[in-house]
Design brief:
globular; alpha/beta
Length: 120
């Protein structure tokens, strides 16, 4: 599972297409607020980008909704955004700047058996 910088087509029409990580400072950014890290940064191409004056949201579903409502650019897990990108509701930006791939596992108990789900 990867992170992707996504935005709405209208946001790109209004603010233009970013061509570098530095260009992101000229855009409205939407950050996922983490309880563990209050500095709000994105790691893109081994660079840590500190987010200044970004809209902060503490829920991944609401983060996606904010992007769909044309509020800016967010860094969203692919499994949240892929269907919207395929439909054309959202657009990936700066795809030439790689981000880390994450492996997420979930463990939950069911009656009489344990199940592990891994998303890649």
């Amino acid at each position: 599972m990867s992170l992707n910088l996504i935005t709405s087509p209208l946001h790109l029409n209004t603010y233009g297409q970013p061509t570098s990580v530095e260009d992101l400072h000229n855009h409205q950014l939407i950050a996922l607020k983490s309880a563990e890290d209050h500095r709000y940064h994105w790691r893109i191409s081994d660079k840590k980008m500190l987010l200044k004056n970004a809209l902060q949201i503490n829920n991944s579903f609401m983060l996606l909704e904010a992007v769909l409502c044309e509020l800016g650019i967010a860094n969203v897990y692919s499994f949240f955004s892929d269907s919207n990108v395929k439909r054309g509701d959202l657009v990936r930006v700066l795809t030439e700047y790689p981000q880390d791939i994450y492996h997420v596992s979930s463990f939950y108990l069911q009656p009489r058996q344990n199940t592990i789900i891994t998303i890649k």
